[in-house]
């Protein structure tokens, strides 16, 4: 059951969901902006008046991926593994009308809360499925998607079975030959999980690049990076330009640097997979 608490004229919505306590917190700077927190850890941001507004650093990075995958207005087929507040699905729908999207969210109670208080617009072709991301992915047709976004977290950690070579082979099966896979990866000091995920992507896809904060790359702070992988060329120069212009500027690494970054890391398999690291105490204030 949801309950409310007042904050600057609007009420926050707090509810128990499958994975903990979810909070929809109003943004005092935007009349219809909301942050989704799960057990006080920030998960998503949505502005109902402007679905193209991306509030989090990693969302900006994923937005750049969408913008370079297809020109504005051209529909795409996208799979979102992890729903949250459906931020990126809203962004795709608003910038590329008539896109067809599948969203997979294991926490159906969270989805119900989000759809009640942050409703989707009627014309958007967004189907939200309840279930495990990998199990639903395995049921999707081969070559269906232009883009698969991996952003599934159990609390603040990526589940182990969504980090392996076997999982990425399933992602690759669902992608069309020129499709892209983009994963939101959280790691800290040292960034061993991030290194292993780069090595895992290299075992499945022919090209990779990493959109990140240099401090995260060097293991100086816990944060999010976006790993982009494909079987064809990636627009590294364009991504570099866009990422450098973000509110929190980042960098894009590819080629030899990325190979050296992952040197010594082994590709993750189902037998060796572990969940991503938990954020250190105090990460979220």
What does this structure look like?
This protein is of the alpha/beta class and 285 residues long. The chain contains 9 helices and 13 strands. The strands form 2 sheets. Strands 8-7-6-9-10-12-11-13 form an 8-stranded mixed beta sheet, sandwiched between helices. Strand 1 and strand 2 form a beta hairpin. The longest helix is centred in the N-terminal third of the chain and has 13 residues. It is globular and about 50 Å long. The two termini are 26 Å apart. The mean pLDDT is 94.
Task: Spell out the key features of this protein.
five-stranded antiparallel β-sheet, alpha/beta, 9 helices, 285 residues, 31% strand
Compose a concise summary of this entry:
This protein has 285 residues and is of the alpha/beta class.
Broad shape: globular
Query: What is the helix content?
Result: 25-40%
**Helix/sheet category:** alpha/beta
Number of helices: 9
List the SSEs and their pairings.
Layout: E1 2-7, E2 10-17, E3 20-26, E4 33-38, E5 41-47, H1 57-69, E6 77-81, H2 87-95, E7 100-105, H3 108-117, E8 125-130, H4 133-137, E9 145-150, H5 165-174, E10 175-187, H6 192-202, E11 207-212, H7 214-217, E12 223-230, H8 236-244, E13 251-254, H9 255-261
Parallel strand pairs: 6-7, 6-9, 7-8, 9-10
Antiparallel strand pairs: 1-2, 2-3, 3-4, 4-5, 10-12, 11-12, 11-13
Helix pairs in contact: 1-2, 1-8
């Amino acid at each position: 059951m949801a309950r409310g608490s007042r904050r600057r004229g609007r009420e926050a919505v707090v509810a128990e969901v499958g994975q903990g306590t979810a909070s929809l917190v109003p943004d005092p700077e935007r009349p219809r902006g909301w942050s989704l927190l799960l057990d006080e850890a920030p998960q998503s941001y949505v502005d109902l008046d402007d679905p193209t507004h991306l509030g989090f650093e990693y969302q900006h990075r994923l937005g750049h991926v969408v913008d370079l995958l297809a020109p504005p207005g051209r529909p795409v087929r996208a799979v979102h593994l992890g729903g949250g507040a459906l931020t990126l699905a809203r962004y795709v729908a608003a910038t590329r009308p008539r896109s067809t999207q599948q969203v997979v969210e294991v926490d159906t109670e969270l989805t119900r809360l989000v759809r009640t208080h942050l409703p989707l617009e009627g014309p958007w072709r967004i189907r939200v499925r309840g279930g495990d991301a990998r199990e639903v992915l395995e049921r999707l047709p081969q070559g269906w998607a232009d883009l698969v976004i991996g952003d599934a977290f159990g609390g603040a950690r990526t589940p182990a079975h969504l980090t392996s070579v076997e999982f990425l082979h399933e992602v690759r099966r669902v992608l069309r030959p020129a499709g892209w896979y983009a994963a939101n990866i959280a790691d800290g000091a040292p960034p061993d999980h991030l290194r292993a995920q780069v090595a895992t992507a290299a075992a499945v896809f022919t090209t990779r690049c990493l959109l990140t904060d240099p401090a995260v790359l060097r293991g100086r702070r816990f944060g999010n990076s976006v790993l982009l992988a494909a079987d064809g060329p990636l627009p590294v120069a364009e991504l570099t330009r866009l990422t450098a212009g973000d509110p929190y500027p980042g960098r894009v690494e590819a080629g030899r640097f990325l190979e050296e970054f992952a040197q010594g890391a082994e590709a993750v398999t189902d037998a060796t997979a572990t969940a991503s690291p938990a954020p250190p105490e105090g990460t979220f204030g």
